[in-house]
Predict the structure.
Amino acid sequence: MEIGYMIDDTYWGQGLTGEAAQCVIDYVVRHLCIRTIIGFHRAVNIQSRRVFDKMGFKSESQFNHTQIIKGESVKIIGMRWSSA
Ligand SMILES: CC(C)(COP(=O)(O)OP(=O)(O)OC[C@H]1O[C@@H](n2cnc3c(N)ncnc32)[C@H](O)[C@@H]1OP(=O)(O)O)[C@@H](O)C(=O)NCCC(=O)NCCS
């Protein structure tokens, strides 16, 4: 499963994204028996990276890649979470 997130900037910095994403993870692990979840963030997106880090995702270099977005080369970092 792949996860991604976005929250209105009115609510940034309150930990709400991680809280909501953790609920999704708990649900899919418990009810769908999913054991591995991946996600991606732009290398420059420190805020998104922090959310992944705080949920226990680890950087997975094999998923790193470059995308061309609006003519710009953008480094994308892959993250992975696995249940114990
Ligand atoms: C990335 C995003 C989902 C984070 O959501 P959030 O609910 O603010 O997440 P958190 O409250 O856990 O904050 C994460 C980190 O962002 C940083 N941060 C929070 N508010 C910030 C602000 N206003 N300015 C700069 N940094 C900020 C903090 O360093 C925080 O880390 P910390 O908990 O170690 O201090 C949100 O910024 C967003 O929607 N961004 C636009 C869409 C996007 O980039 N989505 C991710 C695509 S991969």
